[in-house]
Design goal:
Blueprint (H helix, E strand, L loop, with lengths): L2 H23 L8 H20 L1
Protein name: Cyclin dependent kinase inhibitor
Length: about 55
């Protein structure tokens, strides 16, 4: 195997690893529940309304 084919092989391995790690980071188990999202946004919305009223 020559250097360019070795580099190409390593490059493909890195791309594969990056793709796999991205998939792991965006997996549903890390996603907040619907309740958590609603709670977060309702608190944020109340804060905005409070600032607007002042």
């Amino acid at each position: 195997m020559n250097r360019s084919s070795e580099f190409q092989g390593n490059s493909q391995e890195l791309e594969s690893m990056e793709t796999n790690s991205h998939r792991q980071n965006s997996s549903p188990k890390n996603m907040p529940t619907e309740f958590e999202l609603d709670e977060f946004f309702s608190v944020a919305e109340k804060n905005i309304q409070k600032k607007f009223q002042e």
